[in-house]
Amino acid sequence: MTRAFTFPGITTRVVFGAGTLARTGEELARLGHSRALVLSTPNQRQDAQALAERLGDKAAGVFAGARMHTPVEVTEKAVQAFLDTGSDCVISLGGGSTTGLGKAIAVRTGADQIAIPTTYAGSEMTDILGETASGEKTTRREAAIRPEVVIYDVDLTLSLPLGLTVTSALNAIAHAMEAFYAPDRNPVIEAMCRDAMRAFQSAIPRLVQDPADREARGEALYAAWCCSTALGQVSMALHHKLAHVLGGSFDLPHAETHAILLPHTTAFNAAAVPDLLSPIAGVFGAPAGAGLWDFAKASGAPMRLADLGLAKADLPRAAAIAMKNKYWNPRPFDEAAILTLLQAAWAGTRPA
Ligand code: NAD
């Protein structure tokens, strides 16, 4: 059968390598800007300050208040700092939380963004912004949200703690897993996701042995770029919905939640589309869900939602919230099926 697909094109400029942080000024000038506000979390303030110093008069200031799930009260303060400092661009130096803040400023002010990711979460290549207001998380997709430039510098990931290295990689693998069966997938994304599975499978065990292994860091960051590109191009389904419910309504930590759910959502959907998920089974072991469970366990990932502080009594409410809005998934499901899946992830049992 002749294949049919639409490839929307990749509009973000990507600079990838080791030591590429040094090219930030050049990229800023290329965009036609000369006053950037550098963003980070409080943890990465020193790195943001060092980057601002390196940029000299091209840096308008540092805002080091980024927090997980992009609370709007933080965004309001950051927008004020953007305006007060006369900034014309934002540079987000950090993980998904910092990239999220850059996107939230951009969508409100029209600012261009340079994202410099330091985890594998994969927000940088997407047009997706999740924000929280009064304890509720909402997500939107718009062209203005997507960063103009992404600078991947392998050296910045050498300091990523091992725990976050592993959970963040599993978070990235979840983007690829859902891309493999996305109804709007295309051959470019499929090829990138296949390559990413091989790269993570090779890099993560080496990083568990030595988190400072630069070559393995390079492979893992390359894989993260592939997975982020997939997330930014095609539709996600049940896995991302469940992670969103558990993060948004039960305040579970982002990367760990993705990591724990992944083998279970993979097993659930592999029962319906085993051929589409064969690139995962081929790399991590068959069947795909069990293969990922073994890989996560061997990498020292957290395996049980119970260990993240979720009470067993919360599972029926989580399943009910996940059923609220209809969305596409390769395998049809009802509330009872979701509850069974969540119970397995809560207990951390190996999928069949
Ligand atoms: P994070 O950005 O919250 O980072 C976790 C902690 O690790 C922070 O304190 C951070 O400063 C620190 N850190 C990050 N990189 C480090 C490094 N190299 N060395 C030392 N410390 C480092 O975590 P995350 O998992 O990257 O991002 C999670 C957030 O991103 C969530 O809010 C999630 O919703 C969002 N996200 C959004 C998208 C999207 O497309 N919109 C995609 C993925 C994730």
Shape: globular
Query: How many helices?
Result: 13
Q: Within the CATH hierarchy, at the fold level, what is the topology of the largest domain?
A: Dehydroquinate synthase-like, alpha domain
CATH architecture of the largest domain: Up-down Bundle
- How far is it from the N-terminal to the C-terminal residue, by CA? 33 Å
The level-1 CATH class of the largest domain: Mainly Alpha
Query: Can you write the helix and strand succession as a string?
Result: EHEHEHEHEEEEHHHHHHHHH
Which strand order spans the largest sheet, edge to edge or round the barrel? 1-8-5-4-2-3
The major pleated sheet works out as: 6 strands, parallel
Q: What is the domain tally?
A: 2
**Average pLDDT figure:** 97
Q: Count of DSSP E strands?
A: 8
Helix content: 40-55%
Bound molecules: nicotinamide-adenine-dinucleotide
Question: Unreliable segments (pLDDT under 50, ≥5 consecutive)?
Answer: none
Q: In angstroms, what is the radius of gyration?
A: 20 Å
Secondary structure blueprint with pairings:
Elements: E1 13-17, H1 24-30, E2 36-39, H2 45-55, E3 59-63, H3 72-84, E4 89-94, H4 96-109, E5 112-117, E6 128-133, E7 136-141, E8 149-153, H5 162-181, H6 187-209, H7 214-233, H8 238-250, H9 254-270, H10 278-284, H11 288-298, H12 315-322, H13 335-347
Parallel strand pairs: 1-8, 2-3, 2-4, 4-5, 5-8
Antiparallel strand pairs: 6-7
